[in-house]
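Try it yourself: sequence plus magnesium ion, in.
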Amino acid sequence: MTLLALSRVAVGWPGQESVLSDVTFSLARGARVGVVGPNGSGKTSLFHTIAGILAPQDGTVCLSGQLLRKGQFLPEVALVFQQADDQLFCPTLGEDVAFGARNLGLSEQEVALRVANALHACGLTGLEGRPVYQLSGGEKRRACIAGALVMQPSLLLLDEPSAALDLRSRRRLINLLAGMDQAMLIASHDLELVLELCARVIVLDEGRICADGPTRDVLGDAALMAAHGQEVPHSLTPHDTARHKHRQQTRR
Ligand SMILES: Nc1ncnc2c1ncn2[C@@H]1O[C@H](COP(=O)(O)OP(=O)(O)O)[C@@H](O)[C@H]1O
Ligand SMILES: [Mg+2]
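Structure, out:
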């Protein structure tokens, strides 16, 4: 069943020419789709449009068959910002995660239940009282996701979720996202992450969709990737198995 449908969408920031043109794609409920492309290709602008922050200059965005209107607040769509510090603004983690749920006008009892569930899902239980500036990079990223989950969205827009995370935090994030059943659009330069999490990928360049298809086919297409400033990820690069044999590490 279609959750999100964009048809011939054009987008521009105030006082600028279009940064996205003729963007058409749809997303099924529960599907995870990667969005890759060079810096400035329009990934963040696309997410701001779907989140209702930026109005399309042309075309339509429909969510569950309903036409999105400018400035409309949609709890069904949750944007997780690229910079965690742009998103977290309350004094403590608990208050920050509660913010979205309180905004929905829920009872304090329901807010508390949703906050506890979101913190638990993101492995942050027990840190409720911690000032947000005292969280690590990985905790901040998961705090942003928890703040999105409290609204029980059906679509998560994750903007560069693994940026600046160390390997352990990145792995924890991948496991967290892999276990969630919400539909997701994941904008990332981390092509291995996209490969692990998304069966489908969209390539954006200069504000247009250049490819949309199965992740392994698209990211494995060396000519396509090179044409859009990308490289085939290591795990899709053909290896000469005889020469690429990794030696077993021995303990000293
Ligand atoms: N807040 C903003 N105000 C004005 N222009 C912006 C803003 N954010 C992005 N842009 C412009 O939109 C274009 C696409 O950028 P962006 O959507 O951030 O791409 P990406 O996320 O793929 O790096 C760029 O030319 C950028 O300068
Ligand atoms: Mg961006």
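One thing you can check immediately is this: Residues 2-76+153-236 form a domain with the Rossmann fold fold (CATH 3.40.50.300).
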